[in-house]
């Protein structure tokens, strides 16, 4: 069967993919790709693989690619960084039977890429890049694609894209930032460059940059005319981004951990990194659990930290008058329903367990203000059960019952 090219390749092999998960070092591993596919992603890339290491090291090949070959994980594009045409070809030949295309990374702006002379630091070496893409196009049984960053000058960016197309590139992903836009200088991606490239080439173009919500995806397609949109950071914070939903963090964390049980990554550091990213904002508040997540040495330990974070979020939502996700029907929200009649069913030991370490007022208030809020809102502060304010406040019972129901719901979900 002849190798499909350009738009035909995008329509047939990639099934007209519009929602794309970016190649992310140590973070777009199999478990994360499968989770993203469950929630709307139509095409995924592997993490960037180092071509030279891939060719010479069998363990690297096994841990970073062969152990993650999965029939559910298609369509899939494997990405390499390289600076030698022959080495790039050898690496690509080793994986072409297990993916739908090979991507050449020409966009990585990190210092390690500068030291290794690959990624975006090759963007001025057009003769070398032409040789690499042309050789791969001629010798591989699957298409060659490229991921680039833009130049300051739009015309130079367009010329760059046209050179890669002429050399044999069958799909181009354009990240609308320059090589200097990274870290604290990241800034906003320029979609005008992407739009100009899309108009100038005859191959499919994906856009990358400024994608945090599904509305960003639709707006990018409308403004630039690209065939698909790639997300990296947005996807890491919300793997349901392409679904157009924002589930509670703990739902995504728990689902990811379930996928990890079936498809464990080669190192636990991948899992830890994802949990830090998913729980990023919450961990700024709960520093004790942030430290614990950094120290635990097993997937089970990480899952337990995630469970504790979920419980704290649910309690906080209740205290702020919000709806506690996962709360069973009939659970009390303070101020709406009296719970005094049923207090004999509440286990005092359970109350002590749910109160946490008691070192911080859940309202982030001083002793006097906390007492006033507890009295006014008919809600107990767990910190009052111990030493936070060194005085007992038992004015309300709605908070206590909410804690009880959250715990009971967890037990029912766990089959206890």
Automatic annotation (TrEMBL):
InterPro entries reported in the protein's UniProt record: Aldolase_TIM, DUS-like_FMN-bd
Top-level lineage group: Eukaryota
Residues covered by the DUS-like FMN-binding domain: 21-291
Classification via Pfam families: Dus (PF01207)
GO MF annotation terms: tRNA dihydrouridine synthase activity
Record keywords: NAD, NADP
Keyword NAD: yes
GO CC annotation terms, alphabetical: cytoplasm; nucleus
Keyword Protein transport assigned: no
Protein name, per record: Dihydrouridine synthase 1-like (S. cerevisiae)
Source organism per UniProt: Gadus morhua (Atlantic cod)
Chain's gene name: dus1l
């Amino acid at each position: 069967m002849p190798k499909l090219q350009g738009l035909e390749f995008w329509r047939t092999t990639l099934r007209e993919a519009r929602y794309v998960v970016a190649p992310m070092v140590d973070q777009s591993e199999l478990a994360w790709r499968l989770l993203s596919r469950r929630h709307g992603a139509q095409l995924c890339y592997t993490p960037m693989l180092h071509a030279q290491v891939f060719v010479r090291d069998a363990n690297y090949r096994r841990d970073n690619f062969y152990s993650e070959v999965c029939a559910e994980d298609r369509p899939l594009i494997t990405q390499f960084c390289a600076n030698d045409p022959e080495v790039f070809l050898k690496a690509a030949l080793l994986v072409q039977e297990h993916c739908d295309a090979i991507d050449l990374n020409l966009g990585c702006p990190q210092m390690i890429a500068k030291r290794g002379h690959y990624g975006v630091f090759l963007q001025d070496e057009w003769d070398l890049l032409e040789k690499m893409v042309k050789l791969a196009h001629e010798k591989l049984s699957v298409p060659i694609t490229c991921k680039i960053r833009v130049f300051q000058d739009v015309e130079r960016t367009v010329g760059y894209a046209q050179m890669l197309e002429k050399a044999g590139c069958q799909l181009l992903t354009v990240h609308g930032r320059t090589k200097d836009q990274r870290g604290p200088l990241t800034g906003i991606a320029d979609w005008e460059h992407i739009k100009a490239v899309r108009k100038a080439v005859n191959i499919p173009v994906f856009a990358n940059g400024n994608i945090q919500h599904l509305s960003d995806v639709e707006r990018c397609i409308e403004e630039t005319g690209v065939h698909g949109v790639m997300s990296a950071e947005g996807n890491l914070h919300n793997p349901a981004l392409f679904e157009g939903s924002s589930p509670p963090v703990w739902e995504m964390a728990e689902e990811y951990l379930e996928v990890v049980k079936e498809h464990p990554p080669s190192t636990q550091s991948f899992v830890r990194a994802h949990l830090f990213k998913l729980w990023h904002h919450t961990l700024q508040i709960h520093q004790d659990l942030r430290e614990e997540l950094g120290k635990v040495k097993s997937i089970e330990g990480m899952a337990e930290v995630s469970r504790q974070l979920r419980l704290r979020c649910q309690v906080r939502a209740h205290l702020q008058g919000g709806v506690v996700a996962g709360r069973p029907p009939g659970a009390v929200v303070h101020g709406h329903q009296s719970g005094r009649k049923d207090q004999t069913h509440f286990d005092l030991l359970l109350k002590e367990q749910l109160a946490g370490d008691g070192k911080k007022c859940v309202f982030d208030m001083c002793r006097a203000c906390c007492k006033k809020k507890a009295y006014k809102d008919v809600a107990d502060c767990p910190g009052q059960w111990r030493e936070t304010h060194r005085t007992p406040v038992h004015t309300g019972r709605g908070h206590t019952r909410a804690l009880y129901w959250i715990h009971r719901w967890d037990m029912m979900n766990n089959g206890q």
